[in-house]
Amino acid sequence: MGFGGISIWQLLIILVIIVLLFGTKRLRGIGSDLGSAIKGFRNSVKDPEETAEPVTPVAQQQLKADAKEATPASTETTKTPEQR
């Protein structure tokens, strides 16, 4: 006896019917699409710290410079016309 009262022969007959209905090329495409979807799901579930690339010192300096440049511009927009 097989899985829940289904014998191996019944499973093989179902497999043959599925292959005849969809074809091997289409089943292969479905399998690869399913595999890539599972892989993408696993990557999205991982901790962002594990998947994040380390920041180099040059990139850190550039981020700091960008932040310094952005700060005065943002305070200028909050001034009223009388303050300018």
TrEMBL record:
Cellular localisation: Cell membrane
Gene3D superfamilies: 1.20.5.3310
Topology term for the membrane: Single-pass membrane protein
Keywords (A to Z) from UniProt: Cell membrane, Membrane, Protein transport, Translocation, Transmembrane, Transmembrane helix, Transport
Region (Disordered): 43-84
Record Pfam families: TatA_B_E
Main location: membrane
Residue spans crossing the bilayer: 6-24
InterPro entries referenced in this protein's UniProt entry, alphabetically: TatA/B/E, TatA/E
Assigned protein family: Belongs to the TatA/E family.
Role this protein plays: Part of the twin-arginine translocation (Tat) system that transports large folded proteins containing a characteristic twin-arginine motif in their signal peptide across membranes. TatA could form the protein-conducting channel of the Tat system.
Quaternary state and interactors: The Tat system comprises two distinct complexes: a TatABC complex, containing multiple copies of TatA, TatB and TatC subunits, and a separate TatA complex, containing only TatA subunits. Substrates initially bind to the TatABC complex, which probably triggers association of the separate TatA complex to form the active translocon.
Stated name of the protein: Sec-independent protein translocase protein TatA
Organism: Rheinheimera soli
Origin organism lineage: Bacteria, Pseudomonadati, Pseudomonadota, Gammaproteobacteria, Chromatiales
